[in-house]
Amino acid sequence: MAATESSGLITKATVILEKPLDWQEWLFLRRNKATLNGIWEYCNPDTSLDELKKLVEPIRPMPASVAEGVMLRSKLTQEQRLDYQDMLDTWELEYKTFLQRQKALNKLTSEIAQTTAQSNLYLLEGKSTAYEWLKALKEHLSPNTARRSRELIQRYR
Question: Alpha carbon of 29 to those of 2, 22, 70, 114: distances in Å?
Answer without folding.
Answer: 12, 11, 50, 13
